[in-house]
Amino acid sequence: MQADSFGFGTQIRKSPYFDATVRWGAKGFSVYNHMYIPRDFGDPEQNFWTLVNDAILCDVAVERQVEITGPDAAKFVQLLTPRDLSKMAVGQCKYILITNQAGGILNDPILLRLAENHFWISLADSDILLWAQGVSVHCGLDVTIGEPDVSPLQLQGPKSGAIMQALFGHSITDLRYYWLRKVELDGIPLVVSRTGWSSELGYELYLRDGSRGDDLWEKIMAAGEAFGLKPGHTSSIRRIEGGMLSYHADADINTNPYELGLGRLVDLDMEAEFIGKAALRRIQQEGPSRRQVGLIIDCAPLTGPNTTFWTITQNGTSVGKVTSAIYSPRLEQNIALAMVAAQTAVIGTQVEVVTHSGPCCATIVECPFYDPQKQIAAA
After folding, report:
1. What pTM value is reported for the model?
2. Could you write out the DSSP letters of every residue in 27-47?
3. Backbone angles phi, psi at 156, to 5 degrees
4. pLDDT band at residue 6, thresholds of 50, 70 and 90?
5. Which of 119, 120, 82 shows the shortest CA–CA distance to 98?
6. CB 284 within 8 A of CB 257
7. What is the pLDDT of residues 26-39, one digit of tens each?
């Protein structure tokens, strides 16, 4: 299929890897952060098994970077997030939440600290560049905010470490979980981090020169051939198994951290101010009215992810919604993330889910469904 056969118009950007992904078999795309992202390389179940047994390479250039520099960069980044960043070292990455004045979540990105006054916010799907630039107008802090020429790839799976050694040598094995390193590959400038949206061992390679996208893709695929590397897409099966959030599905501007069980990412006791501090203090004191839970849905295997929010009922009354659902071939169960009324969020509670094929019984369970301590990714 020709690369120019995909298109919604020039308002949707193509990544530096777009042509390479089409060449390697991408059959379908969706739009994320105003950019095409490959969503179909064939059988999604095979994509899952390749991820958990070998390795996949994913074009995630849609994870756009908000770059924050200047003398007050650290103070400004702290203003955006309720997570205490006072001990974040240069070279470290952190999963953070960005909240608004009401405590609602605007994004759940990875923050990278490249230098004392140099940060990247690696985004989920929302316009945080505009939010950050708006916040900066009247905050009185000396910062420069923009979008750099940076486009990440994800190399994920148990053999990703061996592939990275083939590319960069043995020294790359010293890179710790949630840390980054500036490197070059045959003159291609990169930042590499031990992060990824898969719950598997993995790396993200942040290309710092968009003109080298095709070169980088081909070099990685060539190095990975002996290890079973395949082109792939972020796996809905694996991310739901791992309880990983998808912004706009499992969280949005009306969701607060306590509903998601992410109070660990909120430090109300730190001296630094951040947007939403008063609201989050009130929510913590009152307790959230909803909570995210895991669900096992008792019906025939789902043929794909849900494309609408499915209503959850108990004794005929609506108590919440399914936000993400999928059939896990490894667990041999239909698994889901859901948001339900706090009083319903009790392990073992029986509810009913109105799926696309009709009502089904479901049970509230612990989440994540697989490797809850993230031992695989952190290995």
Report:
1. 0.96
2. -EEEEETTEEEEEESS-HHHH
3. -130, 145
4. low
5. 82
6. no
7. 999 999 999 999 99
